[in-house]
Amino acid sequence: MIDLSKKRILLTGGGGFLGSHVRDALLKRGVPEENITIPRSINCDLREKNNCASAVEGKDVVIHLAAKAGGIGFNRERPGELFYDNLVMGTHLLEEARKEGVEKFVAMGTICSYPKFSNVPFQEEYIWDGYPEETNAPYGLAKKMMLVQAQAYRQQYDYNAICLMTVNLYGPRDTFDPKRSHVIPALIRKVAEAKSTRRNYIEVWGTGNATREFLYAEDAAEGIVRAAEMYDSSEPINIGSGVERSIKNVVDEITSIMEFEGEVRWIQSEPDGQPRRMLNVAKAKERFGFEAETSFRTGLAKTIEWFYENVGSVLR
Asked: What's domain 4-170+216-240's architecture?
């Protein structure tokens, strides 16, 4: 087990949604604030190899969360960017960390890397059983290459790099920009805007039948930090809640909490995305004792409260 409180940590993406929660979890572990380095894209573009080399210099652990990501619409509009940016960031950063002698590299993968059609729940062994869902494939495959690289480096260099496969995350500090947000923040904003303008309906892409697994961001951060402390294997490991729910159920929960009684209009000409998603999370519990603790309704309520306090106050 690694005592992170004594390590110098590079936390890429630490200024973003998930990264901010991982930073909080590290501080709770006793990691001194000055030992956590968070590069910012404005002056440290991790697509550039030289910047990656500078970023890992003198570090003991890298937790790589930085990514270009978004919802279905964003994925359809920018597949080339999503592939290239995520691929080169991961490739350069892992290579420079190995060359620098960084003790451990934690790579953040994604459920989008799993095959479009796979037995549910997804077990780690299924990840090579087919091609990802088309709208997510460039992003999912770019992230999946970190797994290939990590396993190759462990084989050739005995380098300690691990890959964590996470589900859809939600919670306070999420991105509520309609152009980039994922399903939960997008729905929260839609309902808030409908209520604010007294519109008696919202529109939602797809049929509502697709299923997803959601994990509260604070829980995800705890799982990532535990893996950084205790997991040392080249095999990917799933981080999730282990609960599958339909998009219709998500809409029902959000509209209930937000007391919206209007109509939900399903735009069935728009894609559902992958038909079903849920991870088998047994290995995370077995290997480092991780289980999600926040109930979905509690997590949604906290997310909605944060939205109104920090983003959508004018929509009350």
From this structure: 3-Layer(aba) Sandwich (3.40)
